[in-house]
Design goal:
The chain has about 325 residues and is α/β, with parallel strands linked by helices. The chain is about 45% helix and about 15% strand. The chain contains 14 helices and twelve strands.
């Protein structure tokens, strides 16, 4: 026979209401009482009926997270941090990969996945603002990233342009004058890539250095693509003394290609990235990169979403948050 809340209450010597309050993380419970209930739960092997509880309260205490690709190191690390912050607030996170397609993003926004959660952290890359606004329903949504910058939505993002300007200025201050940019799409004026390219160009302008489109290496944001982009520049005879990868995966791919070509880093070519993924510290040489406030992004986005769910945030207009950043100077571009 299944163990019930009544069984737990009897074993712990408390009321049924007290057991319910402990299970729902009610804050005004004495630590000793909370411990007795948890000990009884462990001893009896009680498993809460979350479905029944959610039907009664209308809440699941589950948050949805939609990212394009968890194999991307930045997204994987961000997801881990978001889960940790949510857990500290008594919530769990369900994750969905969208593959950056309109169909998958729409399904995540409107389909069964959404029904399982109280609110959604959403990184749209294919859907546009009007489509997201039309499909988001009544449950709170907080956007992550830069694809949609619209006052109708809550948004937590990073200072892409400013940070890219700082890392480019650092390379220029080190005497580099021909800085290749890996991962850029010249026709893209918005989004992370467009913003980071603008920061790069602003740093060049302020240093009085002419922009050279030959130094742009377009590719998708994967390590193998970064290596291939640098290989293509070298094969075309394009000269450069530094590489700015628009994310760390690109920079690490570029670093690998330079080293196997016998090009010394940083003596011949300096390399810098963006994101400060964990691997950046352990590359050889270690990677100079921008740390874009991932901890702050996790704290602010989870906090904002839960405040919306719990009615603690005013509803007049979206809240926009830009996390701070730090330039991490390491061996690849001292």
């Amino acid at each position: 026979m299944a163990v019930t809340m009544n069984d737990v209450a009897r074993a712990a010597g408390v009321s049924l209401k007290t057991v319910s309050n402990v299970l729902n993380d009610y804050e005004f419970i004495r630590p000793a009482t909370r411990q007795k209930v948890h000990e009884a739960i462990a001893e009896l092997g009680y498993e809460a009926n979350l479905t029944a509880r959610s039907l009664r309260s209308g809440k699941t205490r589950m948050l949805g997270l939609v990212l394009s690709d968890l194999s991307a190191p930045y997204y994987a690390e961000l997801a881990s941090k978001l889960m940790k912050v949510a857990s500290g607030r008594g919530y769990r996170v369900l994750v969905e990969q969208s593959g950056a397609t309109v169909e998958n993003e729409t399904n995540a926004l409107q389909g069964p996945f959404r029904q399982l959660t109280d609110g959604l952290l959403f990184t749209p890359l294919a859907m546009e603002a009007d489509a997201v606004a039309a499909g988001r329903g009544n449950k709170p949504v907080v956007l992550l990233g830069e694809h949609i910058l619209d006052p109708r939505f809550d948004l937590v993002t990073m200072k892409n342009e400013e940070a890219a300007k700082v890392v480019t200025a650092h390379l220029l201050a080190g005497g580099r004058r021909r800085i290749a940019v890996v991962g850029v799409h010249p026709e893209q004026s918005e989004g992370s890539g467009g913003m980071r390219l603008r920061g790069y160009r602003k740093a060049l302008d302020e240093a009085g250095i002419e922009f050279d489109p030959e130094l742009l290496a377009p590719c998708t944001w994967r390590r193998d693509e970064g290596a291939a982009a640098i290989s293509a520049l070298l094969d075309r005879g394009v000269t450069f003394d530094a590489v700015f990868g628009l994310n760390d995966a690109l920079a690490l791919g570029a670093l690998h290609e330079l080293l196997i070509r016998g090009i010394e880093v940083p003596k011949d070519v300096a390399v810098a990235g963006f994101d400060d993924i964990d691997e950046a510290r352990f590359a050889s040489p270690s990677l100079t990169t921008v740390s874009p406030g991932m901890d702050e992004i996790a704290e602010r986005s989870i906090g904002l979403l839960i405040d919306r769910i719990e009615g603690l945030e005013p509803t007049d207009g979206g809240v926009h948050v830009e996390a701070g950043f730090i330039l991490k100077i390491r061996e690849s571009a001292p």
